[in-house]
Amino acid sequence: xxxxxxxxxxxxxxxxxxxxxxxxxxxxxxxxxxxxxxxxxxxxxxxxxxxxxxxxxxxxxxxxxxxxxxxxxxxxxxxxxxxxxxxxxxxxxxxxxxxxxxxxxxxxxxxxxxxxxxxxxxxxxxxxxxxxxxxxxxxxxxxxxxxxxxxxxxxxxxxxxxxxxxxxxxxxxxxxxxxxxxxxxxxxxxxxxxxxxxxxxxxxxxxxxxxxxxxxxxxxxxxxxxxxxxxxxxxxxxxxxxxxxxxxxxxxxxxxxxxxxxxxxxxxxxxxxxxxxxxxxxxxxxxxxxxxxxxxxxxxxxxxxxxxxxxxxxxxxxxxxxxxxxxxxxxxxxxxxx
Length: 338
Ligand code: FDP
Description:
Layout: H1 11-20, H2 28-49, E1 58-62, E2 68-70, H3 71-84, E3 90-95, E4 102-103, E5 113-121, E6 132-140, H4 150-153, E7 160-168, E8 172-177, E9 182-188, E10 193-198, E11 209-211, H5 222-232, E12 243-244, H6 250-260, E13 262-266, H7 279-292, E14 296-298, E15 318-321, H8 323-337
Helix pairs in contact: 1-2, 2-3, 5-8
2,6-di-O-phosphono-beta-D-fructofuranose (FDP) binds near residues 124, 248, 250 and 282.
C-alpha cells in the first residue's frame, strides 16, 4: 500500500495560514472552527456506523419544528454542543433542534462568539443511506459580557463572520468561508483529518442543474411556476433549459450546485407562504457561502443576507446558487407578482 502524502494541507494548517494574514487575530475564531470540525468528525463516524450500530430510527421525541427527531439528530445536536460548550470561545448557541437559545454553563468563561447550527440537515435521508449534512453560522456577540442572549443570535446574515457546512456523503466534506474565499476539505479517514481538496471554490455564473421538489408545483405562485418552466427550457430566448437533480437534503443539493453550477429553490406555497427552510440555520449560512463563491441567494424579493430574523426558527423561501439563474428566477417573480 502506498504511504500517505506527508505534505497535505490539513484544515488546522489552512486556518492557521489564513489567520497569519490578519495580525490582529487572536486565534479564537480558528480554534472555534477546529471545534466545529471535531464535532463534524464525531458526527461523521456515527453516520458511517449508523446502519451497523442500530441507531437508525426514531428517538420518540418531537423537535420544535414538530418533526419527529431521529436518534442521529439527537446525537449530532449533542456532539456539536459538546464540542463548543466548554471552550470559553462561545457565549451562546442556537440549534434547529432546540426551542430556545442554548446557554453556556455558569462556571465556563463566556466567549465572544455566538454559534448557530442545524446539526443534521436532510434527516429524512438517514433511514435510506442518502447524504445528510450539518450547517453552521458564526457571529460576533453584540451583548457586551456575561451570558449571550437572543440578541446575539438574531443578527442579519450579512453580519456572519464565518459560515459553512459539512456533507456526509460518499466522502465527508467540510466547506466554509470567513469572507476570504470558500474552501473545501475532505475527511481522509486514514489519518482522521480534513485535508484541503477544493481551494477557493467559485460557483459557475450559469448552472447546469435546477433542484426543487416539483411535486409541489400546483401550490406555487404563478411567478414561481413560470420560473420553473423557464428552468425546464420553455423560454429558450431567456434561459437555457437545465437538468433536474433533487436529493432532498439541502446540503447535498447545494453542494452539487456549488461545484457544478445550478440553482436550488424551496419556495413558499399555498398554506405555507414562508416555505420550509429556516432563515438562521439554513438560508443565511448557505447564502454567505454562495455569495463568497460568486453566487447569489434571495427569498424571491430580498437578499437573504439582508434579512433580519425576528425569531429563532423563522422560515423563509429560498432561491440560491448560480448568479444568473437566481437573477432569472427573481425577474420572473417580479414580472408576475408585482
Ligand atoms: P429534512 O426535512 O429531511 O431535514 O430542512 C429540511 C430539509 O430536509 C432539507 O434538507 C431539504 O432540502 C428539504 O427539507 C426537503 O423537503 P421536501 O421533502 O419538502 O422536499
